[in-house]
Amino acid sequence: MRAADLALLPAPDTYGPFGYGPWWVLGCAVLLAALLAYAAAWFLTRPRGVLEPPPPPPVPIDVRSVKEKYLAMIDEVAAEHAAGELDPRALAQRLSLVLRFFAHESTGVVAEVMTLRDLGGADLPAVRGAVEQYYPSSFRRAARHDPDAALAAARQVVATWM
Fold first, then answer.
1. How far is Cα 100 from Cα 51, in angstroms, rounded to an integer?
2. Cα distances (Å, whole numbers) of residue 12 to 7, 18, 19, 143
């Protein structure tokens, strides 16, 4: 048989190019669109740049030891005042500084550089009240000053801290 004769023979098991329906093409197109949408969503929502690790958990504060430390500091200031090393103005300034550092160490609030108004806004009412008592003595030379009341106020703030 020649090649030309083979081409004329009927082939019952073959089908033409349009023998299948167009649904498989549509299904592949939908599947491809879904894959492209997933890839685009992943690409557009992934984190950019270097990821920073979360901050370390806060270190628990031993309030009892902090209280003892600052009560001892207040006692040192009282001893210096009793020895005549601190005048009323220096006493008020030192007590204010001790209480501000106490608030910083107890809460983490940077109270040592805050004004009286800032202390009020920082939710430190006990520290603000004591520091407010020290303001006249700290800034006016002729202000009336009661060193025992100033020391008692500082001790009360530290002793009653939660």
1. 36
2. 13, 16, 13, 118
Indicate the DSSP class of residue 46: S
SS3 157: helix
**CA–CA gap between residue 56 and residue 72 (Å, rounded):** 31
| Three-class SS of 51-117 | CCCCCCCCCCCCHHHHHHHHHHHHHHHHHHHHCCCCCHHHHHHHHHHHHHHHHHHHHCCCHHHCCHH
Kindly tell me the burial class for residue 48, based on how many C-beta atoms sit within 10 Å of its own C-beta (0-12, 13-18, 19 or more): exposed
* Segment (H or E) for 34: helix 23-45
pLDDT tens digits along 49-107 = 777 888 888 888 888 999 999 999 999 999 999 999 988 888 999 999 999 999 999 88
Residues sharing a CB contact under 8 Å with residue 120, sequence separation 6 or more, in sequence order: 128
Write out pLDDT tens, residues 113-150.
998 889 888 888 899 999 998 888 777 776 677 889 99
**Distance between CA atoms of 150 and 82, rounded to whole angstroms?**
13
